[in-house]
């Protein structure tokens, strides 16, 4: 039988001591995500061990929902801030929620039909991600961006579309300020 429990989430570091799923995403595995391939190569040559983000998940066998944190480190490649890969859910009827606990960023969203939206990520803001909206988070600040996420266990990640085409809009640094611009490569 599934039993209720309280799960501690450290909103500063994103640590979830009782997490039973974890992974670290090194920047070297994010080749192709960034527009400026030369800047990417130069970055990884200089920072071969750099980590883009880490994910910790708390999942109980047989449960309908699971949750965890993503801790995104600050950084830039070319004029693009560090970001997640971005994905749709395999199950098109499953949304998600992202509750930002520390740091600053922006959540880029889009539909298959071409709608785009951005939601600010700042401490206290819980982003509602409706079903079938692709989502990518971007750390636009100088500190780690930590957010807790809540999702159905069966939602699944579908990376293919975003991996192949990228997202319609990019979060870039323009003279030290965040700008959301159309992706020229889309
Ligand atoms: C969020 C959640 C995770 C996701 C992670 C990294 O924490 O949506 O399910 O895996 O971000 O994003 P991505 O998988 O797109 O790289
Ligand atoms: Zn998701």
Notes on the protein architecture:
This protein has helices at 37-46, 160-165, and strands at 21-26, 51-58, 65-72, 76-77, 80-81, 88-89, 96-102, 105-110, 116-121, 126-129, 134-139, 145-152, 157-158, 169-174, 177-182. β8 and β9 form a beta hairpin. It has a single domain, classed as Jelly Rolls, CATH 2.60.120.10. The protein has a 6-stranded antiparallel sheet, with no helix packed on it. A 3-stranded antiparallel sheet has the order 9-8-11, with no helix packed on it. A two-stranded antiparallel ribbon has the order 4-5. The chain is mostly beta strands and 186 residues long. The longest helix has 10 residues, at 37-46. Zinc ion binds at residues 87, 89, 96, 135, 151.
In the CATH hierarchy, the architecture is Sandwich
The beta-strand count equals 15
Question: In CATH, what is the class?
Answer: Mainly Beta
Structural class: mainly beta
Instruction: For the largest sheet, list the strands in their spatial order.
Output: 1-2-3-12-7-10
Say what the CATH topology is: Jelly Rolls
**Structurally, how many domains make up the residues?**
1
End-to-end separation: 48 Å
CATH homology superfamily name: Jelly Rolls
| Strand/helix succession | EHEEEEEEEEEEEEHEE
Radius of gyration (CA) equals: 16 Å
- Discrete helix count: 2
Which ions and ligands are bound to the chains?
Answer: 6-O-phosphono-alpha-D-mannopyranose, zinc ion
